[in-house]
Amino acid sequence: MNPVQTKICGVTNATDARVCVELGADLIGLNFYPRSPRYIEPNIARQIVETLSADVDAVGVFVDGNAEEIRKTANTARVRSVQLHGDFSPETARELASEFRVIRVFSTHPRFRPEEASLFPDCHVLIDAHHPQLRGGTGQTCDWPAARATLAFAPFLILSGGLNTQNVSRAIAAVRPHAVDVCSGVESAPGVKDHHAMKDFIATVRMAEPSLETSTYNLPHNVILSEAKDLGSFSKRKSAE
Hints:
The termini are far apart. It contains eight helices and ten strands. It has helices at 14-23, 42-49, 67-77, 90-97, 144-150, 168-175, 195-207, 233-240, and strands at residues 5-8, 27-31, 57-63, 81-85, 101-107, 124-128, 157-159, 179-182, 187-189, 192-193. It has one domain (5-240): TIM Barrel (Alpha-Beta Barrel), CATH 3.20.20.
């Protein structure tokens, strides 16, 4: 069984990125959504990425947009993974998955159904809390039972939403994710990481139960492809919306 990985999201400067690496984070998130308080220019992100060790995956966070825009920004920043929030089709995700590790984000709003992840067989999946205006970094926890149910439809599941040192052990026990994602839970202000909080969070994750599932994902571009599920009437309903 593989240990649960840790993703520190909303990194905005090289110092915080360096500390993430020193503390043992597996992934860092760089936010390219201009309306986010954690937004970072792609050229600045590139400077951060170039300081990372080869075993740390830099993830570009995107909200909406098209494949060409995402590809251009990701290549400028030299990120090897892209995290997609918003209205992205399976076709767009598939196109990007030929070049990047793609992490498709789902929020646990009242109409969320775990089998929606099956529409994106080329993607890893991140489950986050629902917020009517914000995309991530809300400090709100997601629906853990719904996240657990999504494991059946995702080759690699990342749990996000309001995680911190106090609740991450319970979250891992409840969901059994492959990785956990933290942002505001290790900050002193939006985009400013609290290094002591990061150290405690990563240490707590390492002490938690390892994930039940294993992943064959290897950096930089070995994307797992899972067999697409037959969703029947669900797929037809999504096409009509």
